[in-house]
Amino acid sequence: MTQLNARIADPASVDAAILNRYCVRAFSAQPVPRASVNEILQVARYAPSGSNAQPWRVYVLQGRAREALVTQVCAAYDAIRDRPDLAARYQEEYDYYPSHWLEPYLGRRRTNGWGLYGLLGIARGEKDKMHAQHRRNFEFFDAPVGLIFTVDRIMGAGSLIDYGMFLQNIMVAARARGLHTCPQAAWNRFHSIIMPFVGASADEKLVCGMSLGWPDESAPVNTFANARAPVESFTRWVGDADAPQSAC
Known about the structure:
Blueprint: H1 11-19, H2 34-44, E1 57-61, H3 63-82, H4 105-119, H5 127-135, E2 145-152, H6 158-176, E3 180-184, H7 191-198, E4 204-213, H8 231-234
Antiparallel strand pairs: 1-2, 2-4, 3-4
């Protein structure tokens, strides 16, 4: 039972867990105990949700099960490269990205993509290298724990808002324990392989995957850092906070 209204004794640590979270794309082989994963989920379940619906479902993959899924999805991904006509078999069930990009989002996307590829020494047009790097998604970037998240199809779009807060709780709780994560929409394309593999029902829809583990601190890819827009660029203060308020 949580202690409601408890004072946060060390807010700096909470901020640090948020500010030091980033997408790790190379993990070490150091195992993550099942108890640690369970502890993170115990914390994450306190995410808010509309009408307390708690729409999340989580499938945890470790060991042989994780390896088996990686093998199947990587094989499908490689097959599409060799036979592009197979791409029609693997379509996402919902649009994560827009069909047409506009600024400032297009510029941010390009900065992110070419910044990452540039760090890895992958030049524009090097399709084989790009394929190999994107394939790393389907290896969970070597993380020992893979998480697959689903939601009941009956739920509305608002449940994805709830889900975002749940996922953030997982990532922040992981950072508080020295672990790192990488949330991954890339898995969505292969839901036809993943859903029956994890035992999900036809009433469920894949939301995303996530890698969880200890970072490989020697990997150059883990030095990649994204810039964040300043608060002033996305915030509008409505009214004058310093002005006296009228009585009702």
